[in-house]
Amino acid sequence: MDELDLKILALVQDDARQTAERISDLIGLSPTAIQKRLKKLRDSKIIQKEIAVLDPGKLGQTMTAVVEVSLERENLSVLDAFKKRMRNAPQVQQCYYTTGEADFILVVVVKDIKAYETFTHEYFFGTPEISKFKTSIVMDRVKVSLNVDIQK
Amino acid sequence: MDELDLKILALVQDDARQTAERISDLIGLSPTAIQKRLKKLRDSKIIQKEIAVLDPGKLGQTMTAVVEVSLERENLSVLDAFKKRMRNAPQVQQCYYTTGEADFILVVVVKDIKAYETFTHEYFFGTPEISKFKTSIVMDRVKVSLNVDIQK
DNA sequence: CTTGAAAAAAAATTAGA
DNA sequence: TCTAATTTTTTTTCAAG
User: Fold this and answer.
1) Where are the alpha helices (DSSP H) in B62-136?
2) pLDDT, position B73
3) Strand C at less than 7 A from CB of A19
4) pTM strictly above 0.85
5) Separation of CA A1 and C1' C7 in angstroms?
6) What distance lies between CA B34 and its chain's CA centroid?
7) D strand bases under 7 Å from protein CB
8) Domains of chain B with CATH codes
9) Residue A31 and residue A10: Cα distance in Å, rounded?
10) Do A148 and B56 touch (CB under 8 A)?
11) What is the model's pLDDT at position B126?
12) I need a surface site. Which of A100, B56, B73, B113 has the fewest CB within 10 A?
């Protein structure tokens, strides 16, 4: 992992489709070398995966919410069960287990407010371990990325 | 946009590197047809972009925080200026402008607590428009994706 | 590391139903 | 629209310096 690797990573985390030749032009290293490094970065799982980012709005998913969830009593099995449910919930884009007032903070993407209500009913109401949850509705998705700060 | 497109999208939002041939095997359509559809989905920006997802930990970024930020007075120029700063801040992975107690909710990824302190000093303290902010430190990144719920 | 060549694979294009 | 064949591009692998 040297500075050239970091430069490559900085480029591909914004655009994974650019060719090794283009990257070569940008950072001054032969296309072959770029490819070898990319392979290493993939094999070592520094590059976890390469994904397509879809436009939620164009898929009819027009509502995003950030939800803070508090559990009743925090025992391990309840915690693990909740994590598993969140991982399997298609509406849940992200789930963080956190310190602070709430236990979990979620990013939820759904069709509309009605679909959000359905989501809360399925996952929150009727789940006695959940003591409360607080919803913040997103008015503007100012910045949405999975980018990591890459510097020397 | 038919059901086949949705199936393709569901596949590529998890793995953008699989070939048209593989997708073809999975959903039963010729590789050429897959490619044409993918091109359309890219051109229409339903597929916004294709990116490499990096492992923050392996890049020395071991701390994630969710931050709720409240502004003093919400006037448009202050709002826009803050949005712009967040978009340009490399530590800020995500920024949402929301209803509720806070005005903004951020996901911040940094090296460690010290780097987080540096971040708050640069972006929050000494910014009079910010009335307060509340930090929740992430103990477990239970689910981190940009996936959209795709169903028929 | 580089360049160059070659092979394999994938993507883009074209033509025909 | 789709499929099938062709061409182009890209990736991968290899050898030599």
Assistant:
1) 76-88, 113-123
2) 83
3) no
4) yes
5) 30
6) 27
7) 1-5, 9-15
8) 3-43 (1.10.10.10), 56-137 (3.30.70.920)
9) 17
10) yes
11) 87
12) B73
